[in-house]
Automatic annotation (TrEMBL), chain A:
Keyword set includes Oxidoreductase: yes
EC primary class: oxidoreductase
Gene: gcvPA
Family as reported in the entry's similarity comment: Belongs to the GcvP family. N-terminal subunit subfamily.
Subunit: The glycine cleavage system is composed of four proteins: P, T, L and H. In this organism, the P 'protein' is a heterodimer of two subunits.
Function: The glycine cleavage system catalyzes the degradation of glycine. The P protein binds the alpha-amino group of glycine through its pyridoxal phosphate cofactor; CO(2) is released and the remaining methylamine moiety is then transferred to the lipoamide cofactor of the H protein.
Protein's recorded name: Probable glycine dehydrogenase (decarboxylating) subunit 1
Entry's Gene Ontology BP terms: glycine decarboxylation via glycine cleavage system; nucleoside metabolic process
Domain Glycine cleavage system P-protein N-terminal: 1-452
From TrEMBL, chain B:
Protein name per UniProt: Probable glycine dehydrogenase (decarboxylating) subunit 2
GO biological process: glycine decarboxylation via glycine cleavage system
InterPro entries: GcvPB, GDC-P_C, GDC-P_N, GDC_P, PyrdxlP-dep_Trfase, PyrdxlP-dep_Trfase_major, PyrdxlP-dep_Trfase_small
Catalytic activity, reaction form: N(6)-[(R)-lipoyl]-L-lysyl-[glycine-cleavage complex H protein] + glycine + H(+) = N(6)-[(R)-S(8)-aminomethyldihydrolipoyl]-L-lysyl-[glycine-cleavage complex H protein] + CO2
Keyword Oxidoreductase among record annotations: yes
Protein function: The glycine cleavage system catalyzes the degradation of glycine. The P protein binds the alpha-amino group of glycine through its pyridoxal phosphate cofactor; CO(2) is released and the remaining methylamine moiety is then transferred to the lipoamide cofactor of the H protein.
Keywords: Oxidoreductase, Pyridoxal phosphate
Modification sites for N6-(pyridoxal phosphate)lysine: K266
Protein family membership: Belongs to the GcvP family. C-terminal subunit subfamily.
Cofactor(s) needed by this chain: pyridoxal 5'-phosphate
Species of provenance: Candidatus Thermoflexus japonica
Location of the Glycine dehydrogenase C-terminal domain: 352-451
Organism taxonomic ancestry: Bacteria, Bacillati, Chloroflexota, Thermoflexia, Thermoflexales
Subunit structure: The glycine cleavage system is composed of four proteins: P, T, L and H. In this organism, the P 'protein' is a heterodimer of two subunits.
GO CC, one annotated term: glycine cleavage complex
Amino acid sequence: MRFVPHTEEERREMLRVIGVERIEDLFADVPEAYRFPPLNLPEPLTELEIRWELEALAEANIHTGQYACFLGAGAYRHFIPAVIDELLRRGEFYTAYTPYQPEVSQGTLQAMFEFQSMICALTGMEVANASHYDGSSALAEAVLMALRLTRGERPKVLMFPTIHPEYRAVVHTYVQHLDVRLEGESGWTLHQLRQPLLLLEELEAHLDAETAALVIPYPDFLGRVLPPSRLRETADRVHQAGALLIAVVNPIALALFEPPGNWGADIVVGEGQPLGIPLSFGGPYLGIMATRMAFVRQLPGRIVGETVDLEGRRGYVLTLSTREQHIRREKATSNITTNVGLMALAAAIYLSVMGRHGLRQVASLCYHKAHYLAERIASLSGYEVWREHPFFHEFVVRTPRPVAEINRILYEGYQILGGYDLGQADPELAGHMLLCATEMNTREELDALVEALGEIGPAREG
Amino acid sequence: MPEPLIFEYSVPGRRGVEMPEPDVPEAPFPEGFLREDLPLPEVSEVDVVRHFLRLSQMNYGVDKGFYPLGSCTMKYNPKINEEMARLPGFAQLHPYQDPETVQGALALMYHLQEFLKEIGGFAAVSLQPAAGSQGELAGILMIRAYHRDRGEGKKRIKMLIPDSAHGTNPASSAMAGLRVVNIPSDRRGNIDLEALRRECDETVAGLMITNPNTLGLFDENLMEAIELVHRCGGLIYGDGANMNALMGICKPGEMGFDVMHYNLHKTFSTPHGGGGPGAGPVGASERLAPYLPGPIVAIDRERTVRPDEPVYTLVWPERSIGRVRAFHGHFGVFVRAYTYIRMHGPRLREVSEAAVLNANYLLARLRGIYPVPYDRLCKHEFVIMGKVPGTPVRALDISKRLMDYGFHPPTNYFPLIVPEALMIEPTETESKATLDAFAEAMRRIAEEARSDPQRVQQAPHTTPVRRLDEARAARQLILRYVPTSEPRPTLAQA
């Protein structure tokens, strides 16, 4: 039996020590009617055979290393330096669990402390947790945190309409049986969606004594970055109303743009996948969550703190665990226990090896390539690009034919994985495509996309 | 020597990875948008490699030795799993690719759903939840939605939870807006049926059962408990953290569980990653299947031409509670779990048998050395009391001393119903020789407790750091690196 080391002789000896005759005797307490049901599973494969099977399944997919990819929409293809996987594959890291025993877990604990420090550096916040599942669940937890911080007396949460639609969906799932109203996210016209500053004003007008929080994406789902100076005013208005400002960020964008800590955000969440984590069909990714020190006791999840050992040496431990489920049970700040530690480690290694300079370079390359692409597409007849607001590495294009149709031609005729069909997110945005460019897209790829879009053009008559 | 923080290696101007120069014209940045500083470390690649390698050496993992952390199933993680998850055809897929371009990935998810259905005896499975506790939240939301649809949503607000349950059970229930009612355990470690009966009324949303429970015992009152709750209109939630005892032994779905989460990182050998990523798929009975979180993978009947060449697609369960995360779940974890299940097939029963054999053997070896509060046949884990009569030594001391003997400690001080609890889960991948060596270390620690208790109380003595001052950490709250004016250590000093 693979991975079970016992010989028949050892098994017999162990049963003798236990004092039973057969293995089956160990299950006498299982109700007989249900005991030992057949397991109708395919017969076992050897390592060689499973490799064949999985290679065949993997080859049945078209991957982003084969076709040029312009999909973003919350999951981004970035360069991953070789050192990351090399280090992640240290068995001491990936075969350990939550560092409950700090004396034999200093590696994980110190790496998490460094991760927390780097997330604070990126976001401009004072404290970060050791990760959440992903960006969307981190946002849901941030909303719950804001409700607690306003003592449950404010049932309303204002959600900017161009937050990632799946993030909004997750918030809805989390609060569906609580006394909470989510407002502001839907019912906008195409015209309004095109004007983020107008949306901001509208949402600010709904701030009142019932509001627990306003959630702002930075950049938004459509790639746009709101002016930090304007967001500073928003923060003031939110705080005057006694509410909290939650920002949903892309960490790569924060290498360029004024971090939310500087413009007054109270809680910052985001998807950390761009920080050295493969696309992997959507997961596992990395939820980022940071806040101000004043709110640390309501921050969910693991937090690592510095201390000293018996001999006065610096060391790290899980701290503030009285917030957590294993101590507080139903009064805990969250039910989270296992987070995504290894992904946080990947991000810590990524941010270390890219450093201040490398991360800026990555963000700048994304910015320049996306702007080059946007400008070239804008010159094509039949396409219109939303360019009136600053954007990072994604932008909206109105297409002359249904997006699904264009994507099909791109895929079948040009070996290109086209953009995200925004009609899926909001019917108002039907006929609009969200395109993303990162440092991974070469100029040849960008030009090939432009050329293909030009050739595809409007549908031919008849 | 403690390892400096990566920030302490930083030298202005030093670089790790260099990126190419832009191959497109540079676009101007908008004015007033840019940040000034970016206080990340400035280090070389070799700094990074050595730093994190040294950190790894301060860690203990399953690859290093025995890790009997109860309730966590720290079994060996097959290396083939890692390679398969990294195949470019999996690792480089974008979640929003057209289903037509990701049929292999969807097939894998579909079959994993089917395997988990078969192992747990459920009608349907959703792979969405990111971890066990998120699976719990999803399951409880499903129970709430079910009652709501029957016009009982406002009435059924009470979740019954045994006092031996994981802390996540009450925490997840509270997040779903339910009131938690604790059910005590009886003298044999089972759910106290009398106490349960008293709480069974028309306000019960459900009962959360961990079986085997956190004492490692198969609940002898299980069938009666399920019937009591079902009879009053409540549903049964199964905490599948302990599924490693049950594969091919019994199927919770067949026994009346309505919804259960699986922990792929426990039962199905996907690595624990120093605290995740895990994955917490949820299985549901017929009546709860329509409420599963979505999307899930199904065969696209319209586009399937030949039955032996199914076309897969993502669909929404009819009355789904919604998404619990963006995209399709922890796919990289699914690849590993799929690999593991395919390598075992129906022989997964032997995995559970060996896990239970190992636990009972180790229990037999430790009996007589340490008190056993609930002494009967255990399943995949068991609980002893970390006390040596007549000495001041506690469970914590024993745990720390085990490190000096080269072992990871068991889970300590859980479950809460056993004072000085040490919860030991050996898993099936450990040999008799390893179990013997651990039992011998435990015996010697008990001896030391009598002859030299201070040595045990001050343990560990051989780890990179000694006992750490947790109270101080909580008081001073240093939660991130803040640059100081002190000179930075150089590589040579480190």
